[in-house]
Design goal:
alpha/beta; Rossmann fold; 7 helices
């Protein structure tokens, strides 16, 4: 049986891979930094999340931590940001950013599969940006996000490299969230009671 070779594009667009190789992670990080330097993508995109002071926020699938500093500033010293990812290199990036910018309200968490060590109903907001297209079992991920968000909290899911119709289909199929709103950037959900 012949094993299908993955291209760089396949890895960066999540084709059958949740856990990307270190070399691809490094390339993805460089690509994102380039976008931020020349187009200020992270700053522009971050504003659409509408985070507030004193919130507890989870950046689920934080990758190279491009939103961590902004999230830390948005929630302020009495808020908290948890940066969660399955990739050890992502956690290393978070730790470097925490140290470089003295972000006392940010904590990194290495997830195991779809599970992280946060207690139930911890966060006001969970956002999952540019990663949902890579998830092989969206129902399982959505159950974890529902577990860690407060009953009156919200979950923000960006399409990533898939059509909005596919994102909505995955959310609706899981039956865990109600869709509250959507814009060109993401879908905002709340847990069903």
């Amino acid at each position: 049986m012949e094993t299908e070779k993955k291209t760089i594009s396949d890895h960066m667009h999540g084709k059958g891979r949740e856990y990307i190789p270190n070399s691809i992670f490094r390339m993805m990080t460089l690509a994102m930094k380039t976008m931020d330097v020349f187009a200020h993508y992270s700053n522009k995109h971050f504003k659409t999340l509408d985070l507030k002071k004193n919130q507890i926020v989870v950046d689920y699938g934080c990758g190279p931590a491009r939103y961590i500093k902004n999230a830390s500033q948005a929630v302020g010293k009495n808020g908290k940001v948890y940066a969660v990812d399955i990739h050890p290199m992502a956690i290393q990036h978070v730790e470097k950013i925490i140290s470089k910018h003295s972000l006392e309200n940010v904590e990194s968490i290495l997830a195991e599969g779809y599970s992280c060590s946060l207690p139930d109903k911890t966060s006001d907001v969970v956002y999952a940006l540019d990663m949902f297209h890579m998830v092989e079992n969206p129902g399982e991920l959505l159950r974890e996000l529902a577990r860690i968000v407060k009953t009156d909290g919200k979950v923000i899911i960006e399409d990533g490299h898939q059509p909005r119709k596919e994102t909505l289909g995955k959310i609706n199929k899981a039956g865990i969230f109600s869709i509250v709103s959507q814009n060109k950037y993401h879908v905002v959900c709340s847990p069903k009671n």
